[in-house]
Structures are given as C-alpha cells and as structure tokens.
Amino acid sequence: MIYDYVIVGTGIAGLNAARYIPADKKVLLICKKSPWECNTFFAQGGVACAVDEADIPAHVEDTLNAGVFQNNKEAVQALSEHSLDSIESLINGGMQFDLTNDGELAYTKEAAHSKNRILHADGDATGREMHMFLLKSCPHEVVTDSIVIDLLMQDDICYGVHILQNGKDKIIYSHNTILASGGVGSIYRYHTNSTTIAGDIQGICVEKNIPLKDMEMMQFHPTVFVDSPNARKQLLTEALRGEGAIIEDEEGYGFLKNYHKDAELAPRDVVSRAIFDHSQKNETQIYLSFKKFNKKFFKKRFPNIYKDLKEVGFDLPFERVPISPAFHYSMGGVDVDLNSKVKGYKNLYAIGEIACTGVHGANRLASNSLLEGLVFSKLAVNESLENNFKISKKNYTKEIEYFTLLKNSDKAIKNALRNLMWTKVGIVRSMQNLIDALEEVESYLEENVGRLLFLRLLTAKSIIRSAINRKKSIGAHYIKENL
Ligand code: SIN
C-alpha cells in the first residue's frame, strides 16, 4: 500500500500539516517516542502574531532586524501576513489563548519586538497547550516509538521512509513525505530541547545530498537554569524579561545596559554573548532576578515556572535563579522554497525547525518559531494537494539498507560530541576551535558507531563546516580569535 502522506514528527508543524490534509487521504504521522516528546511541548513564552493588518510591516521589520537582515524577505512577509489567518483558524477550532480581564486576546512582549504581539496560553505553557489542542484534533493515524532511519530517495523523488518500529524494520511508501522532525538540540551538552531531538534526519540529508542551509546559525537562549541533572535544561522564558525580570551578576549589577541600548530586551544572540562575556571577564555567576514582581501576579502569569522551580528549591519571585545560555534552536536546516518544498525534489517537504525557510536569518526573533510551524505547514500542504504527485513503487529500484541502531561505544562518543559542540561550536567560536572540532568529528566518523550516532555526527559535521565557511561574525555565528 502507498500512503498519500507520511509526516515525520508530531510537533506543531507536523500536527498542523495533518490538520490541513483532508480526512479521506491516507496519512501516517510518525513519532520517535511519545507525541509530546517534541520541542513544541516545552515552548513557554508564546506564539508571535501580527496584532492586525497594520502591524504586519512592524512585525516584518522586527524579524529582519533580529535576523540581521540575513532573512529571506519574501518568506518573512509570508510569515507575518499568514499569521493572522493561522491564529484565527486555531481560535475558531477551539484553541484557547489567554485573555485580558476584558476578554480580549492578551499580548505580551519578548525581546526585540517593538510592541506586545505574543499570544500565550496557560500563562507560560503555550507550546504544551497548542500541542494538546492539535493532537486532540488530529484526524489521522499516529504511530509512536518509530525511528526513521532512512529516506527512500531516488533521483529527485522521495518514495517514503524506512523506520524501526519498536525495533522492527518497516518500509513505508508514500506519495508525499513531509519532514517535521525538529532541530538538533541533543548534540549540545546544554540545551532546552526534548531529548528525542538530535538532528537524525538532518544527518540523513547530508548522506543523501539533500541540501542544508545556514547550518552554522545555532541559537542559544540566554536564560536557562542548567544546574540540574536532566539532559533537557529548564528554560526561563523571555516573556519573564518582557514583563520585567532583570539579568544581574553576583553583586546584583544589571550589566546588559553596557552591551545594548535595549538591555534585557536586546536580541537573543546579543544577550547570550553579553552573559558569556561578563561572566568570563568578572568570574561571576549570572542570575535572573524577579524583584519587580509580586507573588500573586507571578504565580498567575508564570504558573509552570513557579511550580517547576519550587520543586528544585526556589521560592519565586523572592529568590533569584542562576542562569546560563544554552542551545535552544536551529535556524539552519533543509533548504526549502516558499512553500516549504525541498529545493530540487518533487514530493519532499520540510516544515518547522528542521526547515530553513529563511524567515529567521542569522538570529530568530522570539516566538516566531511556533508561528513558522503553523504558517509553512499549511503552505506545504496546499502546494502538495495542488501538485498531486504520485509515486510508483516499481520505480524505486534501490536495495533497502539495514542498520544497527546503537553500538557499545556510542555512549562515550555521544557525550564527547556534546561537549565538543558546546565548547568549540557554541556561543563564541574561533576558527582554530572549529578546525579542531571538525577533525575530531571526522575521527569519530571512522569508528564503528550505530546508525543514530552516525547521523548525529554527520549533522555536527555540517554545522562545523558551515561555521568554518562563514569567516565573519554575524548574528548567532560569532567568531572571536584568541579565545
Ligand atoms: C521563550 O519562551 O523564551 C522561548 C520562546 C522562543 O524560543 O521563541
């Protein structure tokens, strides 16, 4: 049998794509573990949206400014224009965003936005609420515990995917394949991502020569509580700073004003580097302080952060929390056109964090990622429905390859890779460190590693290669010699 659509990933992009595919189509959504093991589920702050038609130019301008004008302007325009109908369609379907006391949509502010235009849900659990809404309304079949280990590529056509479902090989043919598997978080030592997100599919793309773009553009979130044993570190949403939280050093000195006129609300890359620089120069721990908040407001506006931090011993908003930047989001990814179709391929699409639509440029504007997932999933589905491409199984003549997922030595190399990416391909880079990192990754690739680690290593290699190729600092890619 041949599916009409296979969607790899069940975050906001994959689930929203499923929502737009007619119920009479045969669709399979594949998720690696459980559906909520995705980055959408952990997104706190919100979803950006032009407040009205008149706000579109300002939203576009803010996105370009944050992205240091490396963005694809047409894609940014599409993002903002479609934000209104995308959000309206969710609300009409029953999604509940937080409201003001007057019953109007409550917009908050995040860094580098010139006005309040971030919608949120259950205070600081926007991703979780949107994810639950989309999952409940998903009209198609979802399979769990299924790892995509290969894409069936021949010439310019994708014939489907090879998965390991509960450890068993399965070949799934499909007329259309949509990649919506997220970014690369787990290849970094400190990150805010779901632990299932490890750049596997980007690795397959490297292997199959499917084009990747802007892979050096890795975003580090400035305010993360990293001092916990969990692999996924606790994010402290930018909306906290939007509502008045302050970044300070051990002495209580708010140093960000020395780095950017917008201080706490400067673009994310600037704030992350300022924290890195100030803490190194002054050998000081950095904190997020909430002294401007009263407890009642804090608990209502940020109920989940209040609860999560209480569990690890903090009495918010009275105590400050030690923070560090941590890997958060991959701006680079599979090179796609304005309908999220992979360039050079007939029936392959990439949406959400795995895609590089160009909307984020060199630094993503806060809360544009959930929006990108919504907008480009719909555009991709519309295009594919119009395209109506059909594969024929007999035209796929390649042998199916079989792989060992994990090998004994993987764990040590995986951890070494995470440290290497954090220390040498992180917030502040040097050419020498990048060259050393490339050599090290190449040596790991010569070891007898399992399939998943092999794919991670290919993804890491493509990030490092892109970073080496971009000689000058811009946005999230910051090169400093003599580190
Ligand atoms: C945050 O809540 O600070 C993260 C939002 C985002 O990554 O856009």
Structural account:
The chain is an alpha/beta fold. The chain has three domains: 2-144 and 331-394, 3-Layer(bba) Sandwich (FAD/NAD(P)-binding domain), CATH 3.50.50.60; 224-327, Succinate dehydrogenase/fumarate reductase flavoprotein, catalytic domain (Flavocytochrome C3, Chain A, domain 1); 410-469, Up-down Bundle (Methane Monooxygenase Hydroxylase, Chain G, domain 1). Helix content is 35%, strand content 18%. The protein has 14 helices and 18 strands. It has helices spanning 12-20, 39-42, 56-66, 73-93, 126-136, 200-208, 238-242, 268-282, 295-301, 303-311, 368-387, 410-424, 431-445, 451-469; strands at residues 2-8, 27-30, 47-48, 107-108, 118-119, 141-143, 146-154, 157-165, 168-179, 212-213, 218-225, 234-235, 246-249, 286-289, 321-330, 333-335, 348-350, 355-356. Strands 1, 2, 6, 7, 8, 9 and 17 form a seven-stranded mixed beta sheet that branches. It is globular and about 70 Å long. The termini are far apart. It binds succinic acid (SIN). Succinic acid is lined by residues 43-45, 237-239, 328-329, 366-367, 369.
Label this structure with key terms:
single chain, five-stranded antiparallel β-sheet, alpha/beta, Methane Monooxygenase Hydroxylase, Chain G, domain 1, Flavocytochrome C3, Chain A, domain 1, 483 residues, binds succinic acid, FAD/NAD(P)-binding domain, seven-stranded mixed β-sheet, 35% helix
- The CATH architecture assignment of the largest domain turns out to be 3-Layer(bba) Sandwich
Main beta sheet: strand number and arrangement?
7 strands, mixed
Q: Number of DSSP helices?
A: 14
Q: What percent of residues adopt helix (DSSP H or I)?
A: 25-40%
- Tell me the overall shape: globular
Which small-molecule species are bound to the chains here?
succinic acid
Alpha-beta classification: alpha/beta
Kindly report the CATH topology of the largest domain. FAD/NAD(P)-binding domain
N-end to C-end Cα span: 56 Å
Low-confidence stretches: none
Number of domains: 3
CATH class type of the largest domain: Alpha Beta
Rg, please? 22 Å
Strand-residue proportion: 15-25%
Count the E strands. Answer: 18
Q: What is the arithmetic mean of pLDDT? A: 96
**CATH homologous superfamily label of the largest domain:** FAD/NAD(P)-binding domain
